[in-house]
Amino acid sequence: MESSGKKIIITVSNDIVTDQRMARIAHSLHKIGFQVEIIGRKMKNSMELEEKSYQQTRLHLWFDHGILFYAELNIRFFIFLLLHKADAIYAVDADTGLAALLVKKLKGIKMIFDAHELFSEVPEVTHRKFIKRIWQRIERWVIYTADRHITVSHSIAKHYHILYGKPFHVLRNVPEPYLVHQDVSDPRIILYQGALNKGRGLEELIKAIAELDMVIHLAGEGDITHELKALAVAHHVEDKVFFLGKVSPFNLKKETAKAWIGYNLLENDGLSYFYSLSNKTFDYMMAGLPQLIPPFPEYELLNKDWKFGIITKLDKDAIVAAIERLKSEPVLYQELKAGAINASKSLNWHEEALKLKEIITDLLR
């Protein structure tokens, strides 16, 4: 026990079950001796919690989107954090940061801010000037108040450092190492895993599948699930697009291993996406799965080192061309598969867990 049993409360705005990054972080903190509680929210379609080494709490909220949701979320978190003893609050993204910074000031405890994205630059916010200004101000308060700062990519870390002069540690969204490489995959499955939200290029993928002798598996749910189902019907490809809904982390690994290629394109719609480096990038690698990736800085740098994917424009014809190229060039496909497997041997959670240990134990020593 290296931490004398000090307690850290982690706040997230999701329902915990499918948040693999925070599961890894919470488990790693528990392993080095901290008491850890992660608090999120329970939604109508939430899966049951799996037993973990740390404590998990989910709150029932009246609202599930918009300003009332964020207001209720932070009020509920504020009350929870006031009433529960902790040595540090680990706030994930700006949408939970307001409650954390207020409790830090009132109780004089430590605060860690973990930016999974540039919240004020996500597509849902960046084009709404008034809303964007509000989130930028909250982001600023949170970053200036926090004692330690963490994010998922070097591009985001650099962006925040330029804006606010605060150094950010980078903990990439790499998974725990696990053996899922399979010699045989289904040559017809294009897999997308993650939230079904705007900006993920899913509309173009559905349009592209009409020209491919393949099927799409969408593992996740989101704001545009119903729109995507309607789009599949409109393009007469509803029999080629399978909506898997929310998938547990265990089953997601099996789904990923069955696929032939991973889909990982994004719209260049706001700096959050442009500077991103998604969880699925590394999950596809771990399964030895070649992937389509966007021409954005973090992906380009990583692909230069490991050659695991094809950089592709977010365009129906470009998607079709890239997949048809892989189908007609088996040597290239195997090169990308080997690159993904080699990358997964180095890009996994072992190194990131050591960084996390150093950051948090230094803060709470």
Give helix % range.
40-55%
How many strands appear in the DSSP assignment? 13
CATH superfamily of the largest domain: Glycogen Phosphorylase B
β-strand amount: 15-25%
Distance linking N and C termini: 12 Å
Order of helices and strands: EHEEHEHEHHEHEEHEHEHEHHEHEHHH
The spatial strand order of the largest sheet comes to 3-2-1-4-5-6-7
What would the keywords be for this entry?
single chain; 365 residues; Rossmann fold; 7-stranded parallel sheet; 6-stranded parallel sheet; 15 helices
Helices and strands in order, then pairings?
Elements: E1 7-11, H1 20-31, E2 35-42, E3 55-60, H2 66-83, E4 88-92, H3 94-107, E5 110-115, H4 123-126, H5 129-145, E6 148-151, H6 154-164, E7 169-170, E8 189-193, H7 202-209, E9 215-219, H8 225-234, E10 241-245, H9 249-258, E11 261-263, H10 271-274, H11 279-286, E12 291-293, H12 297-306, E13 309-311, H13 316-328, H14 330-346, H15 349-363
Parallel strand pairs: 1-2, 1-4, 2-3, 4-5, 5-6, 6-7, 8-9, 8-11, 9-10, 11-12, 12-13
Describe the protein in words.
The protein is α/β, with parallel strands linked by helices and 365 residues long. It has two domains: 7-174 and 348-363, Rossmann fold; 189-346, Rossmann fold, CATH 3.40.50. Helices cover 47% and strands 16% of the residues. It contains 15 helices and 13 strands. The chain has helices at 20-31, 66-83, 94-107, 123-126, 129-145, 154-164, 202-209, 225-234, 249-258, 271-274, 279-286, 297-306, 316-328, 330-346, 349-363; strands at 7-11, 35-42, 55-60, 88-92, 110-115, 148-151, 169-170, 189-193, 215-219, 241-245, 261-263, 291-293, 309-311. Strands 3-2-1-4-5-6-7 form a seven-stranded parallel beta sheet, sandwiched between helices. Helix 1 (20-31) crosses helix 15 (349-363) and helix 7 crosses helix 13. The longest helix is centred in the N-terminal third of the chain and has 18 residues, at 66-83. The radius of gyration is 20 Å and the shape is globular.
